[in-house]
Specification:
Oligomer: single chain
Low-confidence stretches: none
Helix content: 10-25%
Length: about 80
């Protein structure tokens, strides 16, 4: 069995409807980060920052058992 913890921040809490979640799956097959995020958040991939175990990653990054994902809104100005 595998488990991944996900934490949402900023406006993504409203989108996902939660501050955090644990994704539990039967096997330990690695998955892409966007495959384990709340589906309502995935549409914002171009506007978010994804950290896996506190390291910035891009969509397509492979995650597995024990990983921790933090999903933050992109911060910028102009």
């Amino acid at each position: 069995m595998g488990k991944i913890r996900i934490f949402y921040y900023g406006f993504l809490i409203e989108i996902a409807g939660k501050t955090h979640e644990e994704v539990v799956y039967e096997d330990k097959t690695p998955r892409r980060v966007e495959d384990v995020l709340d589906p309502r958040v995935v549409q914002y991939l171009d506007r978010i920052i994804i950290l896996v175990n506190n390291v910035s990653v891009r969509p397509g990054h492979v995650v597995g058992d024990g990983d921790e994902i933090k999903v933050l809104p992109h911060i910028g100005g102009g």
